[in-house]
Amino acid sequence: MLTITVDSNMYVSALGFGGLPMSILQMAVDGEIRIASSSFIQGEVLRILRTKLRWDEDRVSAAEMFIISLTIPTRGRLFDKIDAVKDDPTDNRILECALESGSAFIVTGDKHLLGLGEYDGIKIMRAADFLQFKLG
Hints:
- The chain is α/β, with parallel strands linked by helices.
- Helix content is 54%, strand content 15%.
- Strands 3-2-1-4-6-5 form a 6-stranded mixed beta sheet, sandwiched between helices.
- The longest helix is centred in the middle third of the chain and has 14 residues, at 57-70.
- The protein is globular and about 40 Å long.
- The model has no long low-confidence stretch (mean pLDDT 95).
């Protein structure tokens, strides 16, 4: 089964607004793909839901349980080991998760990651492009 890493911005978009990012999460719910995640990614998502979307703790907790239920956790063995994105070093945590999990794709809306196009054989693309690849 195909394993992918979903960037925190995709979770926030999916949970806050639905759309194409939610379609990708739904693929994991349906067992069509596996999504790898890390404590860093989950923490960033929860922080953004609290601070930027101003969700209350019950809603944040429900989001956390949902993410945990549909993702495969990484152990963080590569944490702070990759330095490929100089302009936004936190983006390297996404690359670490993808590499550790053996993900074939990273799905993101982040310009720094998208600018790489690929990292160590892992294709980096927007949600629309991934869905077109997967469904097309």
